[in-house]
Design a protein that fits this description.
By secondary structure, the chain is mainly α. 69% of the residues lie in helices and 0% in strands.
């Protein structure tokens, strides 16, 4: 029984090792609060969102996109709204980290 369990676990481990998980880390399109709608659309496309989501939200500039909450995004994009919201949270967090680093550099220079 233990041998059978070990064999099953080994098979699952091999399957997991063989899986390809697409990464969006390499396709980073910069997006900040001053980004125009064209950059928003490019960012959404780079993140792998559908053409429909890109068209729906790509008319907004980044400040407008960042101001939307989860509920509003889900109303506009029922299938991908929550995923877009999570990506926005990540992007906003990244921008805050960059801002903190630049503030630290300014303090250090003084």
């Amino acid at each position: 029984m233990n041998d059978e369990l070990l064999q099953r676990l080994a098979k699952k481990r091999n399957l997991i090792d063989q899986m390809e998980i697409p990464s969006t880390a390499g396709n980073s399109v910069p997006l900040n609060y001053h980004s125009p709608s064209a950059e928003v659309k490019a960012w959404l496309t780079a993140k792998g969102f559908s053409q429909r989501t890109g068209q729906s939200l790509g008319v907004l500039n980044a400040a407008q996109l960042f101001s939307l909450n989860n509920e509003e995004l889900c109303r506009v994009c029922p299938l991908e709204g929550e995923s877009v919201y999570m990506q926005i949270l990540g992007q906003k967090s990244l921008l805050e980290d960059v801002h903190k680093v630049s503030e630290l550099e300014m303090v250090r220079e003084k």
